[in-house]
Amino acid sequence: MTLAISGTTRLFAIVAHPAHHVRTPQAMNARFAAAGLDAVMVACDVAPEDLAGFVSGLRGVRNFGGLVVTVPHKSAMAALCDRLSPRAEAAGAVNVLRREADGTLSGDLLDGEGFVAGLEAAGHAIAGRRICLVGAGGAASAIALALAARGPARITLLNRSPDKLTALAQRLSAHRPDVGIGIGGPVSGHDLVVNATSLGLRPDDPLPVDVDAVDAGAVVADVVMDPERTELLIRAAARGLIAHPGRAMLEGQLSEMFAFLTRA
Ligand SMILES: NC(=O)c1ccc[n+]([C@@H]2O[C@H](COP(=O)([O-])OP(=O)(O)OC[C@H]3O[C@@H](n4cnc5c(N)ncnc54)[C@H](OP(=O)(O)O)[C@@H]3O)[C@@H](O)[C@H]2O)c1
């Protein structure tokens, strides 16, 4: 089924800067068409200094349905929403917002939910598992919150910059005081090791963890999608560990985003 844009079509957008590389419109438009929805998603390249004006203008667009929000706008957009989900509030970031029937804007953060959905779709459980999460940026924060909500045995956080590491640990503990959070230490002793840094994007990047120190039988997951088989995943698979690619997180997110944006 193809999209037929008319005077009744609901408008959705992904806002990014730059925007030429985004793939979400293609994937979301295919889902709109498959569901028979009168809706379209386009990409909007908006510079940070124009973001507030962009959102203010959209508030007056009656057939505007919502936004997917990506780099570099996730934190700034949180301040422009009328309400935030608890996880978006905790992370201080959104990656989707929806225009409600009364014209107000609700923001949520689905990166972490997408990561969890991708893990679960591949049959990897989270409850009761010992997790090592590397990174303390936007993706790592969202993933940490989503993993903590699924009852892991504990989460060990590692990151290059100690200030961001401590800040994430504090946010996570405040949001989920029931989950044991550790800072630093060896990568061994974990069932699931997650690279949520950008290490692996460039061919000369060092590995985010020492793969040889990961326990036998562990799952090694990456958020990096390009290349699809990162050096971390190649080394993990070579050792007989279970390698879980970054693409699974994107696929998980698309379903979560579609459900959020099209919820009546
Ligand atoms: N698969 C998906 O659907 C999906 C979704 C969202 C994001 N991602 C990917 O997730 C990655 C991180 O994105 P983000 O939004 O979290 O970025 P971010 O907020 O900028 O955080 C980057 C993280 O990587 C670490 N890092 C960067 N360069 C490093 C280096 N040379 N050595 C050690 N650590 C380094 C940073 O450590 P410091 O704190 O020390 O700076 C920080 O923890 C990106 O590759 C992005 O493409 C994938």
Automatic annotation (TrEMBL):
It catalyses: shikimate + NADP(+) = 3-dehydroshikimate + NADPH + H(+). GO terms for molecular function: NADP binding; shikimate 3-dehydrogenase (NADP+) activity. Gene3D superfamilies: Leucine Dehydrogenase, chain A, domain 1, NAD(P)-binding Rossmann-like Domain. Residues 125-175 form the Quinate/shikimate 5-dehydrogenase/glutamyl-tRNA reductase domain. Pathway: Metabolic intermediate biosynthesis; chorismate biosynthesis; chorismate from D-erythrose 4-phosphate and phosphoenolpyruvate: step 4/7. Residues 14-97 form the Shikimate dehydrogenase substrate binding N-terminal domain. GO terms for biological process: aromatic amino acid family biosynthetic process; chorismate biosynthetic process; shikimate metabolic process. It holds the Pfam family Shikimate_dh_N. Transmembrane segments: none annotated. One of its GO terms (cellular component) is cytosol. InterPro entries: Aminoacid_DH-like_N_sf (IPR046346), NAD(P)-bd_dom_sf (IPR036291), Shikimate_DH-bd_N (IPR013708), Shikimate_DH_fam (IPR022893), Shikm_DH/Glu-tRNA_Rdtase (IPR006151). This is shikimate dehydrogenase (NADP(+)).
